[in-house]
Specification:
Layout: H1 7-72, H2 79-109, H3 114-133
Helix pairs in contact: 1-2, 1-3
Length: about 130
């Protein structure tokens, strides 16, 4: 007893499967985006506190380094200037390197929902294979 489904039934089932498919993928996307946003929300206050403390320490360190180098250049009329210049150049080099590493890390990670896109690519391949076999 082989009963064939009517075209309307097949279309209704296909429509329902498509709804479930799209709904599942949208839920995946929303979950991944929420996860990324939650991580950023947790990290940002700590980054701000860290930034304030680092800037405060940086100011104190800068004063100490300039004072130390001033003693090394004490014979010169420009000892404070030279000490400040050496410290500034050091900070520029280190800051440039840190900025470069941070930029590289952010561009490699990005904000793109990579897991969801990978699943969608796999789904596309599966659908193309299914279309070929039917």
């Amino acid at each position: 007893m082989h009963t064939e489904k009517s075209l309307a039934t097949v279309l209704a089932e296909t429509k329902e499967e498509l709804k479930v498919f799209v709904s599942t993928r949208l839920e995946m996307l929303n979950a991944e985006v929420r996860e990324k946003v939650c991580t950023w929300k947790r990290g940002i206050p700590f980054l701000l506190i860290a930034a304030v403390l680092v800037v405060t320490g940086w100011i104190a360190l800068t004063f100490a380094l300039i004072g130390l180098l001033h003693v090394a250049f004490i014979e010169s009329v420009y000892s404070w200037f030279l000490a400040g210049l050496v410290v500034a150049l050091f900070y520029l080099v280190v800051g440039g390197l840190v900025g470069w590493f941070a930029y590289r890390e952010l561009t490699e990670t990005g904000l793109k929902p990579t897991r969801t896109l990978e699943v969608l690519k796999q789904d596309q391949i599966w659908m193309q294979n299914e279309a070929r076999t039917t």
